[in-house]
Specification:
With 304 residues, this protein is mostly helical. The chain contains 10 helices and no strands. 21% of the residues are buried.
Length: 304
């Protein structure tokens, strides 16, 4: 009986020890029996595998949005030339037209300054030369063959006196000579005012032309905002700056045109006063010649 119990106990021990022997590698030390089992099991590899791409996508999305935001906030160069090159075709045409108008303004300024200076000097010099002349013939001899408004006035008076020979009415001769001199004065006024109308037009219309370019450019900027679906200042500012450049060029063309027009209006008025003085000098010489003719004719009649 005792032997039977011992055999059963040995068989139970062998059965209990066989799983532990199967798990051990050959040549590895046996794990201690008192080592506690881990409290939690590590996550299964199959559950952790899909999480890595999701985390990578979440990390890439903020990086991409940050790069787009950086690209939008970096300002581009806004020099006048770069704004002109990137402007709309209509805005470019407005800017080119205003630049051409400004060039015309300064060309007229230089040409009229030279012209008015020369003609004023000629009239003053001619008036000094005939200040001591006693007749139209002496005045023409003092001036010589020079051309100008005063020689034209003297020639008109002498022609009228020659054509009115035999007419006893001095008042009619003076009146006709005055009409001829007035025509010469008006023609000279039209000549010296040539180009001033263009200055007035440029000064009056350039701001409105520039404003048209500005309105067109801002309209295109708002269209671009609607397409980009953003109100970022870096997106809005370049188009508005290009539009405002058109207004700036319009003012650059208009302000000098107005100032130059007012200056030439004063200078032209002074020159026309000199021309009127020359016309009065020619009329006085004609009157002297007529009076001298009557005196000499009366003296001859008395002698006879």
């Amino acid at each position: 009986m005792f032997r039977t119990v011992l055999k059963l106990a040995a068989a139970a021990a062998i059965v209990l020890a066989s799983p532990a022997l199967a798990q051990q590698q050959p040549g590895s030390p046996q794990a201690p029996a008192a080592q506690p089992a881990p409290a939690t099991q590590p996550p299964a590899p199959s559950a952790a595998a899909p999480a890595a791409p999701a985390a990578t996508g979440l990390a890439a999305a903020p990086a991409e949005s940050a790069s787009v935001k950086t690209a939008l906030t970096v300002p581009r160069e806004l020099s006048p030339w770069s704004m002109f090159m990137s402007a709309d075709v209509v805005v470019k045409a407005v800017m080119i037209g205003l630049a051409f108008a400004s060039l015309v303004t300064w060309t007229i300024f230089i040409a009229k300054m030279i012209e008015l200076s020369v003609v004023q000097q000629k009239v003053r010099s001619a008036l000094r030369k005939i200040s001591d002349a006693r007749s139209l013939a002496e005045a023409q001899f003092a001036l010589g063959s020079k051309e100008g408004v005063l020689p034209s006035l003297l020639s008109a008076c002498m022609r009228e006196a020659r054509l009115s020979a035999g007419i006893s009415s001095d008042a009619g001769i003076k009146e006709r000579a005055a009409l001829s001199c007035a025509e010469i004065v008006r023609a000279e006024a039209r000549r010296v005012r040539f180009g001033m109308g263009l200055l007035a037009t440029i000064g009056a219309t350039s701001p409105f032309v520039g404003l048209f370019g500005t309105v067109w450019g801002i309209m295109n900027s708002f269209i671009g905002i609607s397409k980009a679906q953003t109100t970022n200042l870096a997106v809005v500012a370049p188009g508005i700056a290009e539009a405002l450049l058109a207004t700036a060029i319009g003012l650059v063309a208009a302000i000098p045109a107005v100032i130059i027009y007012n200056h030439f209006a004063r200078v032209t008025k002074g020159y026309l006063e000199l021309v009127n003085r020359a016309s009065g000098a020619a009329a006085r010489l004609l009157s002297r010649d007529l009076d001298r003719t009557h005196v000499s004719g009366g003296a001859r009649a008395a002698a006879e």
